[in-house]
Design goal:
Layout lengths: L4 E5 L7 E5 L1 H65 L2 H9 L15 H4 L3 E2 L3 E12 L2 E10 L6 E11 L4 E3 L4 H4 E4 L2 E9 L9 E10 L2 E9 H4 L2
Antiparallel strand pairs: 1-2, 3-11, 4-5, 5-9, 6-7, 6-8, 6-10, 10-11
Keywords: Coiled coil, Membrane, Transmembrane, Transmembrane helix
Amino acid sequence: MSEKYSVLFMRDDTRVHRFRISPLWLKLLIWMQGILVLVASLGFYAGYTYWHRNESLQTERINLERELREMQVHLERLENVEQILQSNDPEDLQVLLGTMSVEDSSKEKSTLDLGALLATEDSQLVSIENIALKETDSSTLSLSFDLNNLDTTKSVDGEALISLVTRDGQLVSVSADSKDLKFLISRFKKVVAALPMPENTTLKDVYALRIVINSGGKTVLRDVLPVESILQ
């Protein structure tokens, strides 16, 4: 006969109740109680952890909503600036840049002359046509244009200088290979040059391309072309 434990339940006003239980069931009962305590502890820990994580997510969501509202306001301002820049109106551009705030008031402010920045010049000695600009990669632009000699009775030699007009009104020189931009023509030349983007400048930052043709120690042609009109 297998060994069993006797469990007695006694009260003063009733008779004694006795139950017989095997050691296996007693051990299972103890293990089940331990498991229940463990599961309850894990449930409490999981509940606290998820509650704390939910609080963190709520705080993060509120911060993101605030940043989103600020970015929307900033985007609306940039869209207004973009519309003014696309209008290519020097007076509007002068008003826009005149109202731009400077973050560090201790820095010396430079006077921006949009008239000189966007001015064109043509001595009717040469002309440029079929201007095309392509973005070969994030750091290089490809520029091509036809350079024509308008006085076919003599040859013209010189060099083309390329600059970028940024959307914040800065004129940035491009250090292209001078061999690609120097010329000696009697009638016509196809100019093709690779333009490395200046440091910390992307194509989105560029408003216009300025081409200056120098010959005989003086400027014979200067033209400013919005990037959107020549980008391919």
